[in-house]
Amino acid sequence: METVGANGEGCTFPALFLENSERFGTRRVSIREKDYGIWQSYTWQEAREQMRDFALGLAAVGFKRGDRLCVVGDNRPQLYWGMMAAQCLGGVPVPLYQDSIEREMQYIVEHAEARFALVEDQEQVDKFLGIKPQCPKLECVIYKDPRGLRNYNEDFLLSFESVQQRGRAFGAEHPGFLEEEIGKIDPDDLAVICYTSGTTGKPKGVMLSHRNFIETTRTFLEYEGLNQEDTFLAYLPMGWIGDFFFSFGMAIVGGMTVSCPESTETVRHDLWEIGPTFFFAPPPIWQSLLTTVMIRMEDAAWIKRKLFHYFIDLATGQQKKRSRGERVGLLERLLYQIGNLLVYAPLKDNLGLSRIRIAYTAGEAIGPEMFDFFRALGINLKQLYAMTEAGIFISLQKSGEIKSDSSGPPVPWVDVKISGDGEVLIKGPGLFKGYLKNPEATREAFEDGYFKTGDAGFIDHDGHLKIVDRAKDVGKLQDGTIFAPKFVENKLKFSPYIKEAVAIGQGRSHVAAMINIDAQSVGNWAERRHLAYGSYTDLAQKPEVLELIEQEVRRVNQSLAEEDQLKGAQIRKYLILHKELDPDDEEITRTRKVRRGFVAEKYKDLIAALYTDADHVQTEAKVTFEDGREATIKADLAIRAVDANA
């Protein structure tokens, strides 16, 4: 496989981008976007022209070497060009989550000392107008979509097109300026600042260089056999390092085509239209896909449901045999081919995954049952272990050596070792340069040159890295049983009826759980049974729904009972929360990781009730809307006890 710039020394993203435009010109598509139902494509040459005009426009309005450009919005070509433009001028893009509320954005804009921001639309402009008085260093906000902004007269607001117009005029007066600026960039200069999710406190700015990303990306492409013929759907949040790696880094280093969906609501349809060849999704996305499938099957005719469940059970059984290294018999293989004709192939096509050569998942552990389900369909789904500070990859499953309960062996370019207390330590070329404006945290993150991941894990007899949980979250029950909350939660979330869960048990007599139902799935289930409800809270406390969730808890307990070390960690009590855990309420991060300390304090009355003889508990909680408004929800929550399996 040929990677762009493979023979070049000291490459940077801008240098590779220019090389791509010269190499592919108008022959290949660099990026496409669906707008008003029509796919708009830009060749590498067209993308270079668009980016050049914007970069020169940034220079014209005062953007200088070392400046930070905050970028926020849905995945749009203009936003990716903006990140590249900032790099071309020796600046640093700082991508943010598009669903962040004002105070979250304010913290990052202030902390990064950003003078410029590139945003998608009126929604994001309004947020920046709200935080600008508290961010005196913020000088200019540039927007891509002018709809709804006609009467906005602030002099620091500029449209993307107007900046490009200034860029064309600036370029005419300063020929060769951009190429000269690109030539000044060193591979060890910052390429991006990605902020962590802030699970345990304020987000930290992770500084990553061009060298970090380019070396890692090249090696990964060769390791996985991906090349310029592959295509990817850019739908991940731009504030997450995964999007920067797949939609920006791999596209440039690998010369791939990236497609941007019309909106978050049309991702599944656009995925089906594009049919990408490789795909990345964190576990919540795979869970959402699985929930969609299960809902449709519940609505299907009786014979269709029977066929589906028969062949899915057949395929998952074969998948488990392969993972154990057992042989699959001839009759089973023939039946699988029939299942492929009737179930697997049509289902993959319906999900838009029929052309996938390789699919990945990371971000948090995926439930083994969910993992086996998608692999059983014939999707080459692989788990990887990644971190922002690592420049992404640490371990990755090899094709043909898949184990549902591991993240694969460490990749060859990363040195992994396990500390005496079980923490995973890493060293490699992708390691970050440090935390922005936080040298103390940077020093504390390293031990003898190794980065301390904060995750507890071990390397098994096959050389695979297994992550148990966050090291600080792994504990024991009063009887000494190992308690890994995320492990229990992931088993619960395999259910199409459970969206989120928080397991409690550290130092306690038994494990209890607070559960969020999946409103879409449970709502569909309730409608088929003619159960009337008025709200999420009302639906969550229906006796029939409590019974439904109890069945799922019993399923998890049965699974835990099969593990000698974990049978004592079965769930003995649970309640269904009256509201969904929400990033706006600081209960989970933007990447949907539970903020355990915050949740434990906020819901301490509910947790206390789970360890009494009470069968219900009164509660109320404040909720925060995206516009900053607050409301209070009151509810009487039922507490259910569940017997443990022997």
Features:
646 residues; alpha/beta; Rossmann fold; GMP Synthetase, Chain A, domain 3; five-stranded parallel β-sheet; five-stranded antiparallel β-sheet; 22% strand; disordered N terminus
Q: Could you explain how this protein is built, in words?
A:
With 646 residues, the protein is of the alpha/beta class. It folds into three domains: 13-209 and 236-259, ANL, N-terminal domain (Rossmann fold), CATH 3.40.50; 283-470, ANL, N-terminal domain (Rossmann fold); 475-641, GMP Synthetase, Chain A, domain 3 (2-Layer Sandwich), CATH 3.30.300. The chain is built from 21 helices and 28 strands. The strands form seven sheets. Strands 4-3-5-6-7 form a five-stranded parallel sheet, with helices on both faces. Helix 14 links the parallel strand 13 and strand 14 (381-387). Helix 2 (44-60) crosses helix 6, helix 4 packs across helix 5 (122-131) and helix 12 (302-323) packs across helix 13. The longest helix has 22 residues, at 302-323. The radius of gyration is 25 Å and the shape is globular.
